[in-house]
Every structure is written in C-alpha cells, then in structure tokens.
Write a structure and sequence with these properties.
Layout (H helix, E strand, L loop, with lengths): L7 H21 L7 H17 L23 E3 L9 E2 L2 H15 L6 E8 L2 E8 L2 E7 L5 E3 L2 H4 L17 E9 L2 H13 L8 H9 L4 H6 L3 E11 L7 H10 L9 E4 L1 H14 L7 E8 L2 H7 L1 E2 L2 E2 L2 E5 L4 E13 L5 E12 L2 E7 L3 H7 L6 E5 L7 E5 L24 E3 L6 E3 L6 H12 L11 H9 L14 H5 L6 H14 L1 E2 L1 H7 L7 H11 L2 H5 L3 H5 L6 H12 L1 H12 L3 E2 L16 E5 L7 H10 L3 E3 L8 E4 L5 H9 L2 E3 L1 H10 L5
Parallel strand pairs: 2-13, 21-22, 23-24, 23-25, 25-26
Antiparallel strand pairs: 1-6, 3-9, 3-10, 4-5, 4-7, 7-8, 10-13, 11-12, 14-15, 14-17, 15-16, 17-18, 19-20
Helix pairs in contact: 1-2, 12-13, 16-17
Bound molecules: 5-amino-3-(furan-2-yl)-1H-1,2,4-triazole-1-carboxamide.
Length: 678
C-alpha cells in the first residue's frame, strides 16, 4: 500500500498497537523484540502525530504514561472487597501447622495443591478495569480504604491501560504489588546523590515514595513495576477455578506475573520451593521477603474462608530478617598472609539472616571512616543469603557519650613490627614479613588449602597450634612432622595424626601451578599461577625470571611482575622452596605454552546474566585460563558474550553489534572442549 493512502488516524492506531505490544513484550514477558532505540522512534512518531492531531489523543495511548498535572491531594477509595493481609509463618514447623489447619478445614486426606509465589516487598494495589479499560488504581491502605493513585498508576509501563486479548469480565479488579527492581533503586539513589537529595533506605521505601507523589511526572521517572497476584471484583464474566490458572489468564490480558510462580502438591514440596527460592533470592532482580503459599483451588479457598483479617487459605513464609541492630563492642586488628591488617568488629551476638553473628570484617580503615564507626555504637548488621555478614551502618542518634574512636595500631599486634601504609592504598601492613608469626600462620594455612596443596586434615586451628608451640616455622617443616609431635596437639589422636601424615605424603604429588599458587606470592591467584606454570614450564625458569619477561605472561602486569620477582629474590623464600623440593614435592612438567597459543588468546569476552552451574566469577576465571581477557561491558572490541538467564542490556547490545552470543550450555561445551569444567 502507498503510504500516502494511510490516514493519520490509521497510522496512530497502528503505532499504538505496536507500542502496546512491544511494551508488553518488554515489561510483562521480559522478551523484547526490538531495541530501545527502535521503540523510541515509533514512540516519537506517535507523539508527533498526536501533537499535529490533538483531536485524536486518547487517555490510553502509550504517550499518556508520562504523568498528568499535579494533584492537591489523593482522594480516598473504599475497597468493595476488603484487601486482606497475610498470616506469617517463621519456620517450616509453622508452615506445617498451616498445612494441617488447611487439611482439617477441608477434611482432606491427601496432599493439598498450593500455588507458590515469591513475596514481593512493595506496595499492594488494586486496579479496576471496566470494559477492559483501567479506570482506577488505589493503594491497599488499611485494607478497607485506600488512596486514589490512578494518575501515578497510569505511568507504570507493566500496567495495561487497556486489557489485551478477549474474554475479560466487564468489571475486573486486579490486585498485585508495585515494586522497584534493585537496578532501578540503585540508579535512583545515584541520581539522588548527584542532586544531593536524600537517599532511599531500600527499594520498598523508594517504591512507596514514588507512588505517593502528587506530581505523577515524578512517578513516571521512577522505574516501577507491578506484578499481579490475585483478582478482586469479577462481574460480567468469570475467571478460571484455580489460582495458578487465574494468574496465567491475567498474564494473557497484559499483566506481569511472577515468573517463579509454581503450583505444587503437598507441604514438603512447599518447603522445597522455599529452600530453592531462598538460594536464588540474591540473584533475583527484585527484593522479596518470603514466599506466599495459597491453596490453589478456588472452591477450597471459599470453603476455608477467613479469620479476622487474613485468609485461612494463604500464608507468608518469611525469610529470616536480613538486618538487625546490635552493639559494636570492640575492633581488633588481624594480620593476614601478606601482612595486611584487617579490622574485625566484635559484636554483641545478634541473630540475623538465619545465623548468630558475633564478629565480622570491617575490611580497612577507609570502610571504618565511611561508616563513621566508633566503639560503643549501635550498628545495623546485614546478612543476605550465604554472604559474609557486614556492618551496614551505625545509628548516629544512639551513639553513647563514651564512644571510642577506632585507631590503626602503629605496630603489629602480633610481632610488634612497624605498620606501613603505601600511598593511595587502603590497606595497612605489618612490615615483619615472615618474622611475624601471624603472617607465617596464614602463609601455611594458604599453602595447605584446598586449591593449593590440598592437605586434608590440616585445619586452621592445628596450624595455629603448631606454629604457637614452635613445632613448625615454615610450610617445609610440615613434611618433617612426626606422629609423636602431632599427638601432642589438641584433639589429635593417633588415628588423625596418621591420617594427616598420609595426607602430607599424598600432597607431595602435585602440579606446578598448584605449587606456585601455594607459595602465596602477593597478587598471584590460581589463574596467574596457571598462566605462569604454562608459560615457563618449570620452577627453575621462574626462579630466575626478570620483570620484563614476566610481563609477557597473560594476566601479569607490572605490579604483579614486581611482586613475583621480589619474592624469588628473597633468600628465605628460596630456602623454603629448596626444602620443599628436598622433602619430595614433585609434579609433571606442564607442556610449555606460549600465551599466544592459548585457545582464546587475544580475545575479549563478556559474561552477563545468571549462570546455573557456576558463579560469574568462576566463569571469568575459566575464560582467563583459556587466555581470554574478560571485560565488564560489551563494545565493538568484544569477541563473544556468554549470556546466562535474565541477561539484559549487555545481551541486547551484543545482538545489536552482531557479536557472537553463547548460552550456558554452549559455554560449557566450549569449556569441555578445552578440558575444563565448571
Ligand atoms: C506479595 N506481596 O508478593 C500476596 N503477595 O495475596 C503475593 N501478596 C497476597 N500474594 C493475598 N504474591 C493477599 C496478599
């Protein structure tokens, strides 16, 4: 058809349809079909046409999501059907009690079917659609009366202004949670900081603050999402008979539903679901504070009914709180393998994130300054998932009069040597080297660790005792230990002593890269150790190497080269190495490999999204082992992109630039081809 034949009215209608569909693909299905730039071109064309033909503007046009004139205040709205809250369960037992009450209430002998959904930490809302058009949006409020936030709701791209498809009831109330994804929250706080504006404490507060704007143009600038989780009013039509099926139907009508939603049978499966999501929690792009379990069958829901203000057919199994307050009792300085002093917070024991925390690292003095910490402060401790708990902030208004400043010691708390701090470095170090017993202990622990010499049964406590009692001074002394010496140590019987001696013997057969890593040279991790082993092929070559030669090795820059060269110049290091070799440590000669011969030499790779079989960092190390450089962002120089689940903008950019993209299985195939495994 000739374009001149298309009327503005027709073109506007086509553009609206296209934009609505792309909006749905992007915000509801997470499956964009076009780039942001292409979307913007269509959007601008529609905007221009509507400007030229104001009579054709409609309130549900995609251009109308930018916000309307500010309000004086919010009107209030009575919920025709109250918006109830959920009962909580704080343990598997309490979840079991809930399941028992449900079974008894239903007089059911078999397993109950439950719909499981992550519990989003946001603001509950109600959206009313009449004849498929959004006519009203309200907050939950106290469950009976909420605030009219229609103008703000209309700016949220994952909320349909008109329903998609067909078959919706003439009056339909959709309920769900409005939340701010973690990325949007970080970006918002960065913008706030740049403007010297107040920061939001968490995504929930940011979402609430953004929704409570009288000026909806402000709301429009915030990255809010809405996820539907139930229906309220249903008139002039009907919905499916099960909760899971209702959500799928809502999804088809244009609502985002949680992709993790699942329907399972029986309470054990609910516990499994909870555990699985707890593991996944940190990787989710939004914050959740538990799992909601709902009896799936609607007839059963009706049979169970309500108690007080919560349904009997649903429960929120809460994750352990990730934050708790406690007192900072003291700060001690620990000396690490390379002499770095690490301040460690001694805390009044506090239960957080499912464990009791009584001490945690403060990393360095810069961190203490950033947190403005004093001994005696009340602090907020944060522990998420399996990560190390950290002091998130101090509560300034709770600081006692006698709070003490935290000062870096001027001499090593272990050996008394001077403490030095290099210009521009956050870390302070003990200058004692291997004279310092603390450094020696850490060096031996590192030598014995799993990724180094892998000496089974030689735990940290035992190393500490052996050094404290002067049974060993260096790693080489480990190999002349006797059963008689070992059985004198705490918790060491003849059997464990014999096992340890056996493990020491077994560890003597190793590989050059493990041995280099075990030496504990500053900045030489596993990957660098492997690159060094492959490049030089023998320890003798490495011992006499110059800094210039070292720089040729993949992954080695001038600073690392200087550390390596310095290490091999120190007589006592060479003595220890000689004793280790004399004790019988040996390896097969690696095939000497030029850096340029590595399979991915000269290539630049990027990793994005979530990988199931390994962490992103592991993936990075494996790529480096194959000789690739691993970059943080996609550019024209990128050779290939590994895209895990939920890959976002990097994947989009790589596709736009025509860069090779590998999914997880293709990546694993590549690794296996080169003899590596995740
Ligand atoms: C949240 N917050 O994610 C409910 N919720 O159902 C989910 N909240 C809910 N369901 C009935 N997924 C009342 C509240």
């Amino acid at each position: 058809m000739n374009t001149t034949e298309i009327s503005p009215h027709q073109r506007i209608s086509t553009l609206r349809e296209q934009l609505d569909r792309h909006n749905y693909q992007y915000h509801v299905l997470d499956e964009p079909e076009i780039s942001d730039a292409e979307y913007d071109i269509l959007f601008r064309e529609l905007q221009q046409l509507e400007q030229n033909h104001p009579e054709l503007v409609q309130s549900d046009s995609p251009t109308q999501r930018v916000g309307a004139a500010p309000l004086e205040g919010f009107g209030s709205i009575q919920h025709e059907i109250p918006m109830l809250s959920l009962d909580n369960a704080f343990s598997d037992e309490e979840l079991g009690d809930f399941n028992r009450r449900v079974s008894e209430g239903l007089k059911a002998a078999g397993a109950i079917e439950y719909a499981c959904e992550p519990k989003l930490d946001g603001i509950a809302v109600s959206l009313l659609y009449e004849d498929g058009r959004l006519i009203r949006g309200a907050t939950r409020g106290d469950g009976y009366t909420g605030e009219d936030i229609t103008q703000n709701i209309r700016t949220i791209p994952s909320i349909p202004l008109k329903l998609r498809g067909t078959g919706w009831p003439a009056r339909l109330e959709v309920r769900g949670e409005i939340y701010m994804p973690k990325a949007g929250f970080e970006a918002l706080n960065q913008r706030q900081q740049a403007k010297d504006d107040k920061l939001f404490a968490n995504p929930r507060n940011a979402a609430a603050g953004s929704l409570r704007q009288l000026d909806s143009k402000v709301t429009a600038e915030r990255q809010l999402e809405m996820c539907a989780y139930s229906a309220g009013i249903v008139e002039g039509g009907s919905l499916p008979e099960a909760h899971g099926a209702i959500l799928k139907q809502l999804n088809q009508w244009g609502f985002r539903i949680n992709p993790e939603m699942d329907v399972v049978s029986g309470v054990e499966a609910c516990v499994d679901y909870y555990n699985k999501l707890e593991q996944k929690r940190e990787q989710l792009p939004y914050e959740i504070d538990g799992i909601v379990f709902k009896v799936n069958n609607l007839a059963q829901q009706q049979q169970l009914g309500f108690v007080a203000r919560a349904p009997r057919w649903a429960i929120a199994r809460k994750f352990p709180a990730q934050e708790a307050t406690t007192e900072l009792l003291d700060v001690e300085f620990q000396v690490g393998r390379t002499g770095v002093l690490t301040p460690v917070a001694r805390l009044k024991p506090v239960f957080v994130g499912g464990v009791t925390v009584s001490n945690t690292t403060l990393h360095n003095m810069d961190e203490i300054e950033r947190l403005d910490l004093r001994i005696g402060d009340t602090v907020v401790v944060h522990r998420a998932g399996d990560v190390i708990p950290k002091v998130a902030r101090a509560l300034a208004d709770k600081r006692p009069e006698d709070a003490r400043e935290i000062v870096l010691p001027s001499s090593c708390p272990d050996c008394g040597s001077d403490i030095e701090q290099e210009e521009g470095e956050a870390a302070a170090r003990c200058s004692g080297g291997l004279y310092c017993q603390a450094q020696r202990k850490e060096a031996i622990k590192h030598f014995a660790s799993r990724k180094a010499m892998d000496i089974e049964g030689l735990g940290d406590k035992l190393v500490e005792q052996l050094v404290d009692q002067e049974q060993i001074k260096t790693a080489a002394d480990l190999f002349s230990l006797t059963e008689a010496q070992l059985v004198r140590m705490e918790r060491m019987g003849p059997k464990s002593a014999q096992n340890l001696l056996k493990a020491l013997e077994t560890s003597k057969k190793t590989s050059l890269n493990r041995f280099i890593f075990a030496l504990g040279i500053r900045e030489v991790g596993e990957v660098t150790a492997l690159n060094l082993a492959n490049y030089f092929g023998s320890l003798d070559e490495l011992r006499v190497v110059t800094e210039e030669a070292l720089i040729e090795v993949a992954d080695v820059g001038p600073i690392v080269a200087a550390h390596i060269a310095r290490f091999f110049k120190q007589p006592h290091n060479l003595e220890v190495i000689d004793s280790l070799i004399a004790a019988g440590i040996h390896w097969e000669k690696p095939v000497k490999q030029d850096a340029s011969e590595q399979p991915l030499a000269g290539q630049s790779w990027v990793l994005t999204g979530t990988l199931q079989s390994m962490g992103r960092n592991d993936g990075k190390k494996l790529l480096q082992q194959l000789g690739a450089k691993v970059a943080g962002s996609v550019s024209a120089k990128t050779t290939a992109l590994v895209a895990g689940e939920k890959a976002g903008s990097k994947l989009k950019k790589a596709t736009e630039l025509g860069i090779q993209v590998l999914d997880e299985s293709a990546f694993i195939e590549l690794l296996t081809e080169h003899g590596l495994q995740p």
